[in-house]
Write a structure and sequence with these properties.
Strand content: 5-15%
Order of helices and strands: HEEH
Structural class: mainly alpha
Number of strands: 2
Radius of gyration: 37 Å
Number of helices: 2
Amino acid sequence: MNLNIILGAVLAVILSFGAGYYKGSNDEEASQAIEIAKANEVARAKEQKIIVGHNEITKSTLGEKDAIEKNRILFNAQYSATFGLRQSSSGLSVGSNSTSGIGGKTLRFSEADAQFLNNFAAECQSVEAERNEVILKYEALK
């Protein structure tokens, strides 16, 4: 056999393999780019959904916080102006002689009033705990 024919056949096989490999790698890159684009679209949709949810939680939480703050201000304005109360971190005792100091004077609360104030303080604490929990969930989403 002729050496040129053998070298030509080997060269043809090598070129065929090289061309197929090049075409295949281009096709694979294109299919990977399509898959990445699809995955990015899904990720963007999830991100938008999370952002919408976050905005709703923020609006709701801020609305609740504002409502609680308004109630607190109204409560303090009504009772502080009337009785000259100072804010205290200690709770009120519930009993027949519940008292609280007011600038050297003593204010006596009825058992019902003291219970109401204790319940109100407990409700404020539970709402604040819920608000803090929502904030922690939001922070976890970031």
